[in-house]
Methyltransferase type 11
Amino acid sequence: MSDRATERTRRRYDRFARFYDRVEAWVEERLFAPWRRETLSQVSGKVLEIGVGTGKNLPYYPEGVELVGIDLSPKMLERAKARAERLGLKVTLLEMDAQELFFPPATFDFVVGTFVLCSIPDPVRALREAGRVLKPGGRLIFLEHVLSRHPLIALWEHLHNPLTRSLFGFNVNRDTRGNLLKAGLVLERDEILGLVDVFRRFVCRVP
């Protein structure tokens, strides 16, 4: 975690951790929660969640999943651990950089990320790491907001990106589909969920 951009991201999310759930409460209830539930219903076995944050996904994992969640921010992890305790869930939560995973190859049946590739300084590096720790036949599933193909929406995203990046540490104009392909992953599904084509779900595998 010596990289400057990575350290800046960690510090931003440490500062933001106590406000994070409240800031997103409205959109979480009306949009994100149903998408999380549907997305996570697809996973089984041993699952790695990168960027577990405050643990918003924890209530939606199917029973029997062996979950490992990682996050760069210790303050976010504190809240995830508290949420897991409230829910009575047995999960492993670790402070770790998604760009440098400390797991051996072929460890997990699924790798999951929700609204996380927007904040990782080098998303392609993180995606390659995610592919490395995936078992043969496993799947990577990402729920993300991405750069729109609609020119006016894309312009709005480009104009606002410096603000969201500096204040909250995330980018609103990431070409996530392009990054998945750059990482050498095979894109099986690219589903549009909402806001024209901004909110998307990707399902990938390793060649």
